[in-house]
Specification:
single chain; 173 residues; two-stranded antiparallel sheet; two-stranded parallel ribbon; 7 helices; 6 strands; 38% helix; globular
């Protein structure tokens, strides 16, 4: 029970954002994906062109396949499921989850979080400079390939490298 965070990861950039959910049900996930599609459409972006393929785990929360695959502009995204208990099917996401857990440690309840808190967490995760990107951040790469407007539509904003906080202190109010 309680709130959960659905993470969305764009592998080419190691860019990740999160959607705060009230529960881990198929109806909640379908509603949040539908809402994301609407936000993107209103911002002038096509969900299907950004997410032509979606890879997820085998959780029942992804069972509303039609709501996930069908897009408002008539395009289709294809949904595929990883093998159970096989993190090697999507290894890049594991590093970002580790960075997220540096800020939101295991056992931390998401019940008091807001979507703005989640956006802040992922803004900091995406701001970390990475050796594999020659000192650039996931945010830098994503914005170069897409735009700051799209990052903003996902709730992620620029955080200067010297202001990055990778600990629970980030959310101390």
């Amino acid at each position: 029970g309680g709130k959960v965070i659905m993470t969305v990861h764009l592998t080419a950039y190691n860019f990740m954002f999160g959607l705060l959910m009230d529960n881990k049900t198929a109806a909640e996930y379908a509603a949040r994906i539908t809402g994301l599609k609407q936000i993107l459409q209103e911002a002038g972006f096509s969900f299907g062109s950004i997410f032509p393929v979606l890879l997820t785990d085998n959780g029942g929360e992804f069972s509303c396949v039609r709501a996930i695959e069908e897009n408002p502009d008539g395009s289709l995204s294809k949904l595929f499921f990883c093998n159970p208990s096989t993190p090697s099917d999507k290894p890049q996401i594991e590093k970002n989850h580790t960075m997220m857990r540096d800020i939101l440690p295991k056992g931390f309840s998401f019940d008091e979080l807001t979507q703005e808190d989640v956006n802040l967490v992922f803004s900091h995760v995406n701001a970390v400079k990475r050796k594999e990107f020659n000192g650039k951040s996931a945010y830098d790469l994503f914005c170069f390939s897409y735009s700051q407007e799209l990052a903003s539509a996902f709730g992620v904003s620029h955080v200067p490298a010297e202001e990055v906080i990778q600990s629970p202190k980030l959310l101390k109010k």
